[in-house]
Amino acid sequence: MGRKWNNIKEKKASKDANTSRIYAKFGLEIYVAAKKGEPDPESNQALKFVLERAKTYNVPRAIIDRAIEKAKGGGDDNYEELRYEGFGPNGSMVIVDALTNNVNRTAPAVRSAFTKCGGSMGVSGSVSYMFTATAVIGVEGKSVDEVLELLMEADVDVRDILEEDEAVIVYAEPHQFHAVQEAFKHAGITEFKVAEQTMLAQNYVTLTEDAQVQFDKLIDMLEDLEDVQQVYHNVEFADEE
C-alpha cells in the first residue's frame, strides 16, 4: 500500500518544480470555492479543504487572499467542474479533473493530449470504476499507534493507518477528511505532510521504459493545461518496489 502515498508524493514533487503553475491552479480553485459559498473557511467547508491543501503546497498567503477578495467582489466568471477519463500507453488509466469557463476549449485540449501520447479518451465511468475516492492525511513525529489512539479518542474510523517514508499516513473516506484533521488538531498537530482528497487506483501497473516515457509526456501535457486541476492514474513510478 506504500505506493499510494508515493504516487501522491511524486505528484507533489512534480508540481512543486513549477510553482507558478501550481499557484495559479490553487488561486482559481480558491476563487471558485469562495464564490460558491461564503468567503469564510469556517462556514465554507469546500473553501476550508482547498486552503488546507494549499498549505501543504506552500501557496503564498498573498495568492490566497487575492483569490478570496476577488470572490467577494463577485465577477462574471462561471466555472464548471468536469471530469475526463482515458487510457494512456499500454492500457494505463488516467482521470483528469478540470475547472473551466469554456468547455469547448477544455475537452479538445484534453483529448489532444491523450492522442498525441498514444492514448485515447474514454466515456464517463470507463476508468473511474477502477479508482476509489479517498482522503489522505499525513503527519510526522507520531507513531502509527499514537495516531490510532488519538483517532479512537475522537471516535473517528478510518480505512488504514500506515507508516510510509518517515510519515504516518491516514487513508479515510472522503467525508472523514475534516474529522481526521480536527482529531489531529485537537492533539496539537497543525502541520500536515499531505492533506488531499484524491482518487487512488485499486490496482497499479508498471510500464515498459518506452511506454513510461510516453506516459510521463502525457501527464506533463495534461498538467500544463490551464483548465486541469488534478490528474490521477494507476501507474507505479520506476523507483518504487
UniProtKB/TrEMBL annotation:
Entry's Gene Ontology molecular function annotations: DNA binding
Key word DNA-binding present: yes
Keyword field contains Protease: no
TACO1/YebC-like N-terminal domain location: 3-74
One Pfam family from the record: Transcrip_reg
SUPFAM superfamilies linked: YebC-like
Chief place of localization: cytoplasm
Keyword field: Cytoplasm, DNA-binding, Transcription, Transcription regulation
Protein name per its UniProtKB record: Probable transcriptional regulatory protein L0M14_12370
